[in-house]
Structures are given as structure tokens and as C-alpha cells.
């Protein structure tokens, strides 16, 4: 977050920005007291969100998704029109029948693939995609998107190379087998992923990009010491990758859209001998994206990325509401309280140039 860049940007004259209300196409809301604490942040910023199913236990059935959806709706601030878009957690045992039920229910908008062991609460995830073929065939037939945590789990692959290896080992063979399957490559972090999605021709593939992968490279994790609040999965990469993600997000290409991957973890579990992966950005997500687009001189491309491309990809109407951002410096709170548990937002204590009105 660089104030100098902002002042020398050729768009420094822009003081106010009104956009169609953005949606968050990748969000962790958790459950219980944590849900109560974090949901108002997302509901203030976004009209809708694709809600990740990696609860404990995971949301693997349409029935569980219906119950989770009701808990989210019950936790919304009075008067909020925020709409949770539910997902199922793919397992080795997900049946074609379960996919049919999900499609018929109408409130399930995707099925999430977590390679077993890849990230937070992924233990029940898929061990071998071949076991899911009946479910994938049904998803392809019904147009229900497969959402990918795109990293291999092979311990022999360097942690910084796991996304690139996923493209070669999993994604290319999968898309050759099921060319009609709608796919969202979630939270992409590398030049290779951005390029792979850009070059997909007419194929049904999109990608979400987080604010933190647009703003930071991997140095952020090690600046003057180990900084656990910058640790997420897939982990931040080298500067060349950050630059490729900024180029993709600001390109106007409708395959790329906003997905915060905001993932709350208790401060004590981040600042830990084995710290949890995940950055919390729901509090200030649109401001963070505005910062990234402003630094790239591309504020005029923010609305497409944040408010239109995702809705178009998922076949949902664009928002009829608007939000307004003002160029007004403010300081991100160092932490906030989630029912007695402190949570540290990304960049807590630092200044941001844009503020949501
Ligand atoms: N992104 C993360 O680092 N963590 C996410 C899981 C995920 O999206 O991989 C979480 O649920 O905490
Ligand atoms: Zn993930
Ligand atoms: Zn996530």
C-alpha cells in the first residue's frame, strides 16, 4: 500500500467512485459465534457471496447447505439484503443424485474441490478425482460449476510450485475429460494460472483473484520477521506473479473476477507455532481492491472485475444497487472482537487511501 504511487497516479484526480454493488465469489463465513461476528462485514460490502463449505464437519449435502443457509440468513443484520450463494464440498463419495438435488434446490451455485490435505479443513476432501466422475458428469450436464482449490498436495512438490503442478497434473487432464464442465480456478496466485485461464478460448473457465495476492508478494510474510497474518494458501508468490495477477485483474477480461477468500482465524491461532492459513479481508475488501486497481492506474476497470464478470459467469443478474468509494485516508483497525476472540484484519494498523461510504 503505497501512498506515493497513489499521488503520482494519473488518476489521482478521481476523488469518488460509484460502482454497481460488488459480489464476493469466494468467501469463508464459518459458523456460530464467528459467523455472527464476520457476516456484517461482508454484508456491508457485498450484495452476494459464494460461501465456502469447509466447515467442521464439511457441508457435503444439499440438506446441510439448506440448514447452513438458514443460519447465515438468521445472522444477517436487520434490513440486509445480502444473499448467500451456497456450495457443496466434494468428497470421494459425492453421488450424481446429490448433484441433482443440489441443482434442483436452486440455492447451490457450485461444488468445491479441496484436494485432501491442501488447506484449512480439507481432510475430508478428494483423494482421487477419478472417484468423483459420476458427480462431475452430472455437474457438466447441469452446468453446475466446479470450484477448485488448485494446489497439489504431493509433499515432494515445493510449496511455491503447487499451483503450477496442479494445472499440469489435475486441471489439464480434467478439462480434457470434461470439456463442458464449468470451472472456477479459485484464488489464483501465479503467472502460469493467469495465463492458463486467459488462453482458454471459448471454454467455460473463470478465476477469482484475492485482494492480498494483488497487493503483496511473498516478501510480506518475512518483512523484519515472520508475519503470520500474511500467511494464506495458496501462499503469496514472487513479485512477477503479483504483477501478472494485477495485469489479469485489470485487463477487462471477463474470466477474472473478485473473490476475497476472506478467511477468519483467531489471532492466537495465527500467531502460533503452527499458524493457520488465511487472511481476513471482509472488513475492508473493496477498499483493498480499489487500492490495487488505483496503484495500477486502472480504477476504470474495477467495476467490471468486482461487480459484473462474476455474475455473468455464474449466470446471475448484475446488481441493481450501487456503492460509493471516497478517496479518504483511514486506518485499518489493528484487531476486532469476534465474541471474545480477537481477529486481525489484513494490514491492521496500516492506512488505506479509499473508504467505502
Ligand atoms: N485461504 C486460506 O488460506 N484458508 C482458507 C481455506 C482456503 O481457501 O484454502 C480457510 O478456510 O481458512
Ligand atoms: Zn482454498
Ligand atoms: Zn478460501
CATH architecture name = Alpha-Beta Barrel
Taking all Cα atoms into account, the compactness measure Rg is 19 Å
> How many helices?
12
Shape: globular
Q: CATH superfamily, called what? A: Metal-dependent hydrolases
Strand-and-helix sequence, N→C?
HEEHEHEHEHEHEHEHHEHHHEEEE
What do you see in this structure?
- This protein is of the alpha/beta class and 357 residues long.
- It has a single domain (22-321), classed as TIM Barrel (Alpha-Beta Barrel), CATH 3.20.20.140.
- It is built from twelve helices and 13 strands.
- The protein has helices spanning 3-8, 32-45, 62-75, 96-105, 133-142, 162-177, 191-198, 211-215, 239-249, 267-270, 285-295, 302-314, and strands at residues 16-20, 24-27, 48-51, 83-89, 108-113, 146-148, 183-185, 205-209, 256-258, 322-331, 336-338, 341-343, 351-356.
- The strands form three sheets. Strands 2-3-4-5-6-7-8-9 form an eight-stranded parallel β-sheet. It has a three-stranded antiparallel β-sheet with strand order 1-10-13.
- Helix 7 (191-198) packs parallel to helix 9.
Amino acid at each position: 500500500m503505497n501512498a506515493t504511487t497513489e499521488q503520482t497516479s494519473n488518476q489521482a484526480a478521481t476523488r469518488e467512485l460509484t460502482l454497481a454493488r460488488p459480489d464476493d465469489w469466494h468467501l469463508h463465513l464459518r459458523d456460530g459465534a464467528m459467523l455472527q461476528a464476520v457476516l456484517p462485514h461482508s454484508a456491508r460490502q457485498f450484495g452476494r457471496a459464494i460461501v465456502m463449505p469447509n466447515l467442521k464437519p464439511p457441508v457435503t449435502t444439499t440438506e446441510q447447505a439448506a440448514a447452513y443457509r438458514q443460519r447465515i440468513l438468521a445472522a444477517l443484520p436487520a434490513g440486509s439484503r445480502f444473499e448467500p450463494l451456497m456450495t457443496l464440498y466434494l468428497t470421494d463419495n459425492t453421488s450424481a443424485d446429490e448433484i441433482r438435488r443440489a441443482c434442483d434446490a436452486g440455492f447451490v451455485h457450485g461444488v468445491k474441490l479441496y484436494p485432501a490435505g491442501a488447506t484449512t479443513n480439507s481432510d475430508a476432501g478428494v483423494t482421487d478425482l477419478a472417484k468423483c466422475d459420476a458427480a462431475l458428469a452430472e455437474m457438466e450436464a447441469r452446468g453446475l460449476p466446479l470450484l477448485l482449490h488448485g494446489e497439489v498436495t504431493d509433499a515432494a512438490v515445493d510449496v511455491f510450485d503447487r499451483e503450477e503442478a496442479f494445472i499440469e497434473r489435475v486441471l489439464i487432464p480434467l478439462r480434457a475429460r470434461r470439456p463442458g464442465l464449468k470451472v472456477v480456478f479459485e484464488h489464483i496466485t501465479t503467472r502460469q494460472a493467469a495465463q492458463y485461464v486467459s488462453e482458454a478460448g471459448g471454454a467455460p473457465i473463470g478465476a477469482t483473484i484475492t485482494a492480498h495476492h494483488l497487493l503483496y508478494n511473498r516478501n510480506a510474510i518475512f518483512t523484519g520477521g515472520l508475519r503470520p497474518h500474511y500467511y494464506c494458501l495458496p501462499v503469496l508468490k514472487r513479485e512477477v506473479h503479483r504483477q501478472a495477477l494485477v495485469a489479469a485483474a485489470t485487463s477487462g477480461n471477463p474470466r477474472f473476477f473478485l473473490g476475497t477468500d476472506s478467511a477468519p482465524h483467531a489471532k492466537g491461532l495465527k500467531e502460533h507455532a503452527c499458524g493457520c492459513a488465511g487472511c481476513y479481508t471482509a472488513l475492508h475488501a473493496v477498499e483493498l481492491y480499489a487500492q490495487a486497481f488505483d496503484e495500477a492506474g486502472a480504477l476504470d476497470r474495477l467495476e467490471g472485475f468486482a461487480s459484473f464478470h462474476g455474475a455473468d459467469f455464474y449466470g446471475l443478474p448484475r446488481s441493481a444497487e450501487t456503492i460509493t468509494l471516497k478517496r479518504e485516508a483511514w486506518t485499518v483497525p489493528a484487531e476486532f472482537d469476534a465474541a471474545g476472540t480477537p481477529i486481525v484484519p489484513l494490514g491492521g494498523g496500516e492506512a488505506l487511501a479509499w473508504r467505502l461510504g
